[in-house]
Amino acid sequence: MTLFRLIRIRGIGFSRNILLTATCMAITLPWSTPTVADQSATLAISCGAVGKEYELCRTGVDTWSRKTGHRVTIVTAPGSTTERLALYQQLLAAGSQDVDIFQIDVIWPGILANQLIDLTAYAKGTEQDYFPAMMANNRIDGRLVAIPWFSSAGLLYYRRDLLEKYGERVPETWTELQTTAQRIQQAERAAGNPRMWGFVWQGRAYEGLTCDALEWVASYNGGAIIDARREVTIDNPRAAAALTRAASWVGAISPLGVLNYGEEEARGVFQSGNAVFMRNWPYAWALAQSDDSPVRDRVGVASLPRGGEDGVHAATLGGWQLAVSRYSRHPGLAADLVMFLTSPGEQKRRALEAAYIPTIPALYQDPDVLRANPFFGQLYATIVHALPRPSAVAGVHYNRVSSRFWNAVHGVLAGKQPAQPALEQLARDLKRILRRGRR
Ligand code: GLC
Fold it and tell me: What is the pLDDT of residue 51?
């Protein structure tokens, strides 16, 4: 459905024509490349386009092209990870050769493994340079189906200047956040900014809401939807309390429109100076600090609040990997480009230019990286111990599990149903889905 909408909007046909949306370095289109052309081949990579992603991907790819003489086409992908998965699944299900390299979400290796090549031989032992948990996440049935490109974790952004102005501290708990947000929102509105809001986040019914809601639930010690033994744990009073609280923000400290916000909508409000707090990923830091940002040098970053005194600071683990399609005509070359883009040099460049979180521990000791991103050092533990979504235990069913979760949460936030019955129903649905086994 989403895919068709996407295609209709762009006025293009399916599969090979999707490349018409791409910015091409080459005049030759990939499907007219001679099959024996590994000496001067054309590859296609699908990279994200949120924030500075596209620009950074292009520079990395250009460097590899200059080094090797091969051409690379960049295929843009939808900003929403949910729409993107639908698109990639359609392309892969059709055995499309139009995309050689896919940028895949940390939650997808189990879903897409069968259509991706094993990169072990191409990694040549460099696997040990990366965070072991991230590598393990990309190894499905012993096959290394992707290399971690950048990591991510949910963070709290706050307006340092406004907290100082009102003598408030960075909130430790959600109650504190709510009180501070309410107070500053009211005062700033009275002082002449009617568009000021207390807190913006990702409330649209999509994967981003799963990330935010998992943080709320986990911060109240309400578990991670499904536990490591594949038991559904979401139907519990702490989870219900967390969701009830979040629902109370909508229309009070968060605009009603938050129910349709993704990452970029939240950033738009915060970066234009109209929110006190924002939940977002690290990429938003470099943009908030950019030369034309109205909030430049007025922003701080902290761990997300705890769910009460006995709660914890929870951050959902995000991040993206690079993988090679098993339908690629040039798997060896594509793997070489993947290894180049995920190498320490490229990851350092991306961290310096746009705050992309490295997947290589050694880079967290690098003084240049720490200077450009002061919060990397401060929040190292948050980033490294971020909470994984239950994609490994749910296997191929993860997207179905997550969509049930985000829809249930969205209903609670929109006031359609109280949290407790919504979670009871959700738990029943999830048990039914998981009964089908991992694959
Ligand atoms: C970010 C994260 C990704 C997550 C997505 C949800 O892109 O890196 O893991 O699924 O946000 O919107």
Answer: 85
> Which CATH class for the 2-145+318-384 domain?
alpha beta
Pocket flag, ligand 1, residue 318 (CB < 6 Å)? yes
Contact between residue 75 and residue 53 where contact means Cβ atoms under 8 Å apart: no
Start and end residues for every CATH 3.40.190.10 domain found in the chain: 2-145+318-384, 153-316+388-434
Please, is 39 exposed, middle or buried when counting C-beta atoms within 10 Å of its C-beta (0-12, 13-18, 19+)?
A: exposed
Is the distance from the beta carbon of residue 208 to the nearest atom of ligand 1 less than 6 Å? yes
Residue nearest to atom 3 of ligand 1 (CA): 318
Q: Is the CB of 382 under 6 A from ligand 1?
A: no
Q: Cite the beta strand spans of 303-425 per DSSP E.
A: 317-324
Q: Which atom of ligand 1 lies nearest, measured to the CA of 50?
A: 7
Would the pLDDT of 259 be above 60?
A: yes
Whether 281 lines ligand 1, by a CB cut-off of 6 Å, is yes
Is a pLDDT exceeding 60 seen at residue 2? no
**DSSP string of 297-328, one letter each residue:** T-EEEEPPPBSSTT-----BEEEEEEEEBTT-
Q: pLDDT, tens digit, for every residue of 98-124?
A: 999 999 999 999 999 999 999 999 999
pLDDT in tens, 384-413: 789 999 999 999 999 999 999 999 999 999
First to last CA, the chain: 24
Residue 268 neighbours by CB distance under 10 Å: 13
* Selection from 409, 342, 285 nearest residue 130 by Cα: 342
Beta carbon of 81 within 6 Å of any ligand 1 atom: yes
pLDDT tens digit sequence for 182-234: 999 999 999 999 999 999 999 999 999 999 999 999 999 999 999 999 999 99
Fold (CATH) for 153-316+388-434: D-Maltodextrin-Binding Protein; domain 2 (3.40.190)
- pLDDT (0 to 100) of residue 4: 29
H helices within 118-173, ranges in order?
120-123, 132-138, 160-165
φ/ψ (deg, to 5) at 436 = -80, 0
Catalogue the long-range contacts made by 128-133 (C-beta closer than 8 Å, 24 or more residues apart): 129/344, 129/360, 129/362, 130/359, 130/360, 130/361, 131/359, 131/360, 131/361, 131/384
Q: What is the pTM of this model?
A: 0.89
Helices (H) and strands (E) in the chain, counts: 20, 12
Cβ–ligand 1 contact at 280 (below 6 Å): no
